[in-house]
Design a protein that fits this description.
The N and C termini lie far apart (147 Å). 33% of the residues lie in helices and 18% in strands. Among the domains are: 35 residues; 83 residues, no CATH class; 181 residues, Penicillin binding protein transpeptidase fold; 117 residues, Nucleic acid-binding proteins (OB fold (Dihydrolipoamide Acetyltransferase, E2P)), CATH 2.40.50.140. It has 819 residues and is of the alpha+beta class. The strands form eleven sheets. Strands 6, 7, 8, 9, 12 and 13 form a six-stranded antiparallel sheet that branches. A five-stranded mixed sheet has the order 2-1-5-23-24. It has a five-stranded antiparallel sheet with strand order 15-14-30-29-28. The protein contains 21 helices and 34 strands.
Length: 819
C-alpha cells in the first residue's frame, strides 16, 4: 500500500530535509542561547576592570632624581592611552587586531577562518581579538578549553559594551606579557632598549608588537634570528594597513635589532642604603605595597658622594689587608686541562665581588725574569710582575709576617687559583709597575670590615652610607653603619668635654695629668688607668687633654662631673645604647652604632641642635600625590613629578636644642685642634675647616674616626665582625682615619666648592692666651693661641695664682680615689 505518489517523493525528501534543517538550526540557536546563558552566570564580574590597579614598579631615587633601585613582582610601567605614541598603538593593531575599532569584542570571520583551518589540520590558529586577550589576562585563566573560550566571548562582548575602545586598548598595552619579566609595552621598551616609548624607532615598535604571540620564542635576546623574522612580518602588516610607507618599511627592515637586556636597578651603587630604605618602607606600608604599589621613593642619598664613600672604604680596607700579608690562593686547580672553561665557571661564583677582582689561574712562574703568566676568563692570559708582589709576605698572625719576597715562586705556584685586577684599575699601584693592558695585580678578599656614614648636619639626611664590604652572595648582609654596635673608645670623649664646658669649664681650664689609682672594695679590684703613651704630663689645659686624648685627665674630669650625670648628658645627643655606670664609660667602653655616633657629632656643627638621621625625604603614589614626608616643615617643597626631582625651599632650623650654641662652637674649635695637633692629623689633607676625634679600643679591636665639617658629620669604623685584634698600632688614626680623609678630600673640595667655615655664634669671644697655662700671655709665654670663650669666662690675668687646677675633686659612687 502506497501513502504518497511516487512522483512526489523527491519533493517530500526536500521538504523533510528543509524541515529537519530548520529544526536543527532553531535547536542549535536555542542550544547556543542556553549555553551562553548558562556560562554567562559563571563568568567573573567584568566591572572589576574599572577598579583595576596594576602591579607597578616601586622606584627609589637619590636626592638628585637618579634611580638607585627598583622593586617589583611584575616589571610594569603604566602609560595612559593618551600618552602612548601613536606608532606603538598602530604596531599592536597591525600585529594583533587590525579590526579592533570595528568589531564587537570578537571577530566572527576570524573565528570561522581559524575553525576551518583547525578542522582541516592546518597550522593551529587562534582568533583572539585584543578585547578577548584583555578578558583572558585580567579575568580568566590560560587553560585551553572550550568552556574558557565561551566565557572569553561573553566577557569580551560585555567589556565592549561597558568600556570605550581606547580604555580597552590602554588596559591591553599595559598588561600584556612581553617576555624577560616585562609587562606592558613601556616596561618592555626599558627592558630591551633602555628607552622611553617616545624614543623607539618603527623597527623597535614592530619588534615589541611581535612578542605577545610567543614571548619566549620571539625573544630578541635568546632567539634573535626568529625575532627578526617576526619583526619583519609585523612591519609588513604595518605597511599593509597604511601605518607606515613602503619606504619606511624597507628602512626599518634594514635596521639591526640593537637589543641589550636592561635589568631593574638593583641598588648596586648603594646596597646597604637601599636595603635600609627597603626595610623602612616595608615597615611602614607592607610587602605588597612595596613590590606592587608603584611608589616613587625620594631618598637623601647623593650618588656622587656615595661613590666617594664606597671607594674610600674598599681602598683602605684593601690597604689594611695588604699590610698584614697574603693568605694564599683561593683554590688549586690540580691539572691545567681545560683551565679556560674552569676559570669561566669560576667567574659566575665571583660576580658579586667584581670590585675585589676576577679569578685567574697561574700557568707559569719564571723566577729568572721575575714574572708569572696567568690564565684569565674568555681564554685570555696576562702577567704579574715580581715588584707588585712585595706586599704578599705570608700571613702568620695579626702582628707577624713571613720572610720578605725575593722571587715570584715565594708567592705563586703553577695551578694556583687566585684573584687579580688589571694594574690600570688598582689603587696606589707600585711605583715602576707596568700599567698597560695585560698586566695584573694579585688581590685577596679583605677579612677586616668597615663602615662609613655621612650626614647633612643641618637636617640629618643620610648623604652616603657604606655598611661593609660585599658579602659575596649578592646580598647586603649586616649593615655595620646601622646595625652593629661596637666599642667607641676615645671618640666618645668630646661628649664628656662638652658637658664640662656647660658646667663652667673653659678650653683653658687646667686639669692635672697624673697617675690615678681607683679602688672598689666591694669587687676587691684596683683600677690603674693609663694614657696611651703610658706617660703623665702634669697640669694641662682642657684643650690639650682632648687634643692628646689624655685618659687620666678625662677620668679626673668624669669624677668631678659624676658618671651618672655624664650618661644622662650623653643621652641628649640621641645615643640610646646601654652604658655602664662606671668611669670607663667616659673613656669609651660602651658599644654604640656608627649611626648614633655620627648623629651625636652632628650636634657640634649644627649649633647644638639634635637632628635624627633619616634616609627618605618623601614618597609619592603612582599619580604623584605625596603620601609621606620626613619633615613637616617642608610643606612648601616644590615637586617636579615629571622629572622626579626634589626641590626644597630653604628649611627652618630643625631639631631640638640640646646644648647651647656656644658650647657646640667651642667643641667644633676643640675638634679642629685635634686635627692640627692630635691623632686626627691625617685630616689636615682635607684642606678645609674640619674637626675630628679618633677612637681606639683595647688590643686594637675597634678603630674609629668621628668628625665634622661646617655642613656634614662624618664617621668611619674599622674592625673584624668577631671582635679580635687588628694588630699592633692599628689605631683609629692608622685604620679608620684614611677612609674618613679620602672621602672628605673629595666631598669637601668638589668643583666650585667655596671654603667652609664654622659660623661663630653670638656670645663667643676670641682671646689670645698662653697655650700651656691657659692664662693671658706674658714674657715667659712660649706658644700663643687664640681661644674661643663664652662671654664672661675669658682669663683676665697672667698670674697662676688666679687659676684653679682640677686635681682630685669629686667622688664616684663605686670607686674611691687614691692619688
Amino acid at each position: 500500500m502506497k501513502f504518497w505518489p511516487q512522483k512526489d517523493a523527491p519533493f517530500f525528501k526536500l521538504k523533510a530535509l528543509f524541515a529537519l534543517g530548520c529544526y536543527g538550526f532553531i535547536s542549535g540557536v536555542f542550544l547556543v542561547i542556553a549555553i551562553l546563558y548558562y556560562y554567562s552566570t559563571q563568568v567573573p564580574d567584568y566591572r572589576t576592570l574599572a577598579e583595576y590597579k596594576p602591579k607597578l614598579i616601586t622606584k627609589v631615587y637619590d636626592r638628585n632624581g637618579e634611580i638607585l633601585v627598583e622593586y617589583a613582582k611584575q616589571r610594569r610601567l603604566y602609560v595612559p592611552i593618551d600618552e602612548m605614541p601613536k606608532m606603538a598603538i598602530n604596531a599592536y593593531l597591525a600585529a594583533e587586531d587590525d579590526q579592533f575599532y570595528h568589531h564587537i569584542g570578537f571577530d566572527l570571520i576570524g573565528i570561522a577562518r581559524a575553525a576551518v583551518n583547525n578542522i582541516l589540520g592546518r597550522s593551529r590558529q587562534g582568533a583572539s581579538t585584543i578585547t578577548q586577550q584583555v578578558a583572558k589576562n585580567f579575568l580568566l585563566t590560560n587553560e585551553r578549553t572550550y568552556t574558557r573560550k565561551i566565557k572569553e566571548l561573553i566577557l569580551s562582548y560585555r567589556i565592549e559594551q561597558a568600556f570605550s575602545k581606547d580604555k580597552i586598548l590602554e588596559l591591553y598595552l599595559n598588561e600584556i606579557y612581553l617576555g624577560s619579566g616585562s609587562y606592558g609595552v613601556a616596561a618592555a621598551a626599558h627592558t630591551y632598549y633602555g628607552k622611553e616609548l617616545d624614543e623607539l624607532t618603527n623597527a623597535q615598535f614592530a619588534m615589541l608588537a611581535g612578542l605577545p604571540k610567543a614571548p619566549s620564542r620571539y625573544s630578541p635576546i635568546s632567539n634573535p634570528q626568529v625575532a627578526r623574522y617576526r619583526r619583519d612580518v609585523v612591519l609588513g602588516r604595518m605597511a599593509a594597513e597604511g601605518f607606515i610607507s613602503e619606504e619606511e618599511r624597507l628602512e626599518a627592515v634594514a635596521e639591526d635589532l640593537n637589543v641589550e637586556r636592561v635589568y631593574l636597578a638593583d641598588g648596586e651603587a648603594a646596597p646597604h642604603f637601599s636595603e635600609h630604605v627597603r626595610r623602612f618602607v616595608l615597615d611602614m606600608y607592607g610587602e605588597e605595597a612595596l613590590y606592587t604599589g608603584g611608589y616613587n621613593i625620594h631618598t637623601t642619598l647623593d650618588k656622587e658622594l656615595q661613590s666617594y664613600a664606597e671607594e674610600a672604604v674598599y681602598k683602605n680596607l684593601r690597604e689594611y689587608d695588604r699590610r698584614h700579608g697574603y693568605r694564599g690562593p683561593i683554590d688549586r686547580m690540580g691539572l691545567l686541562i681545560n683551565w679556560q672553561g674552569r676559570i669561566d665557571n669560576e667567574v659566575d661564583d665571583w660576580k658579586h665581588r667584581k670590585q675585589i677582582g676576577t679569578p685567574a689561574v697561574v700557568l707559569e712562574v719564571n723566577d729568572a725574569e721575575g714574572i708569572a703568566q696567568i690564565g684569565l676568563p674568555k681564554n685570555t692570559t696576562g702577567f704579574i710582575e715580581l715588584k707588585t708582589l712585595e706586599w704578599a709576605r705570608a700571613y702568620e698572625d695579626e702582628d707577624n709576617l713571613g720572610p720578605r719576597i725575593k722571587k715570584v715562586s715565594d708567592v705563586l705556584a703553577v695551578n694556583d687559583v687566585i684573584l687579580v685586577k688589571p694594574m690600570a684599575e688598582v689603587y696606589n699601584p707600585v711605583k715602576g709597575a707596568k700599567l698597560e693592558e695585560g698586566y695584573y695585580s694579585l688581590e685577596q678578599i679583605p677579612q677586616v670590615q668597615g663602615a662609613f656614614l655621612a650626614l647633612e648636619a643641618e637636617t640629618g639626611a643620610i648623604l652616603a652610607m657604606v655598611g661593609g664590604l660585599d658579602d659575596g652572595t649578592g646580598g647586603t648582609g649586616l649593615n655595620r653603619a646601622v646595625q652593629a654596635k661596637r666599642q667607641v673608645g676615645s671618640s666618645l670623649k668630646p661628649l664628656v668635654y662638652a658637658m664640662a664646658l656647660e658646667k663652667g669649664y673653659t678650653p683653658a681650664s687646667l686639669i692635672l695629668d697624673a697617675p690615678v689609682v681607683l679602688r672598689n672594695d666591694e669587687m676587691d679590684k684596683t683600677w690603674k688607668p693609663q694614657n696611651y703613651s703610658e706617660k703623665v704630663y702634669g697640669e694641662s689645659t682642657l684643650r690639650r687633654g682632648l687634643e692628646k686624648s689624655r685618659n687620666l685627665m678625662t677620668i679626673r674630669l668624669a669624677r668631678q662631673l659624676g658618671i651618672g650625670n655624664i650618661i644622662r648628658y650623653i643621652r641628649k645627643f640621641g645615643i640610646t645604647a646601654d652604658m655602664e655606670r662606671n668611669l670607663s664609660t667616659a673613656l669609651g667602653s660602651s658599644s654604640i652604632s656608627l649611626m648614633e655616633m655620627t648623629g651625636a657629632y652632628s650636634v657640634f656643627t649644627n649649633g647644638g641642635r639634635l637632628v635624627h638621621p633619616y634616609a627618605v625625604n618623601y614618597i609619592q603614589d603612582p599619580v604623584g600625590n605625596v603620601i609621606y614626608r620626613e619633615h613637616d616643615a617642608c610643606e612648601s617643597c616644590r615637586l617636579d613629578i615629571a622629572e622626579n626631582i626634589y626641590k626644597p625651599e630653604p628649611l627652618p632650623k630643625l631639631g631640638e636644642q640640646v646644648i647651647p650654641e656656644t658650647t657646640a662652637f667651642q667643641m667644633a674649635e676643640l675638634l679642629k685642634g685635634i686635627v692640627r695637633n692630635g691623632s686626627a692629623w691625617r685630616a689636615k689633607a682635607v684642606g678645609q675647616a674640619v674637626g675630628a676625634k679618633t677612637g681606639t679600643t683595647n688590643d686594637f679591636i675597634d678603630a674609629w674616626l668621628m668628625g665634622i665639617s661646617p655642613n656634614m658629620a662624618l664617621g668611619s669604623w674599622v674592625g673584624f665582625d668577631r671582635p679580635t685584634s687588628m694588630g699592633n698600632a692599628e689605631t683609629g688614626s692608622a685604620a679608620a682615619a684614611p677612609i674618613w680623609v679620602d672621602f672628605a678630600v673629595k666631598a669637601l673640595n668638589k668643583d666650585g666648592q667655596q671654603p667652609l667655615y664654622f659660623k661663630v655664634p653670638n656670645g663667643i669671644s676670641f682671646v689670645q692666651i698662653d697655650a700651656d697655662t691657659g692664662l693671658l700671655p706674658n714674657s715667659k709665654t712660649k706658644r700663643k693661641i687664640f681661644e674661643a670663650f663664652e662671654h664672661g669666662t675669658e682669663p683676665t690675668s697672667d698670674s697662676k695664682a688666679s687659676q684653679k687646677v682640677l686635681q682630685a675633686e669629686g667622688q664616684d659612687i663605686q670607686w674611691q680615689g687614691i692619688y
